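Reading a protein record of the kind used here takes only a little practice. Think of the row as the fold of the chain written in a discrete alphabet. With that in mind, consider the following protein and its fold in token form:
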Amino acid sequence: MKRFVLFFFIGCSFFLPSCLNWFLEKPTFTLKEIEVRNISLKEINFLFGIEVQNPNNFDLKLRALEYTVYFYDQEVGKGRLQKEIKIANSSSVLVQIPLQTDLKSLGNPLGFLLAGKDLRYKIEGAAIIKTSLGSATIPFSKSGEIKLK
């Protein structure tokens, strides 16, 4: 009987993380703001405020966030935020992610940025989420128009 219990717990420890998708309601990602932090002759630094909403009845930890940013369908940069952020159950948190890009990769969108018009964007990537049951990689993609700060 002791062997059965031991094998049961060992088996559960291997299969439980793969069953995480049965219990985990995927968090949602919403772009709330884009701020121009610094402009030089060669590059521009942005700070994106992304709201991460946890719809679950348990806490999540955002372990990492990989992202690619497009302005007017043109890729302007990639990044990875490697910072553990706790997202309490049934709540949201604003995550600040940086993006540094050279002016050459902005090309056409630079005129829209300088004119103060709404910016058409797309952000796609993946979030690595950790729970007490295991970890999961959640892909996301958001697009729309937003006014720069």
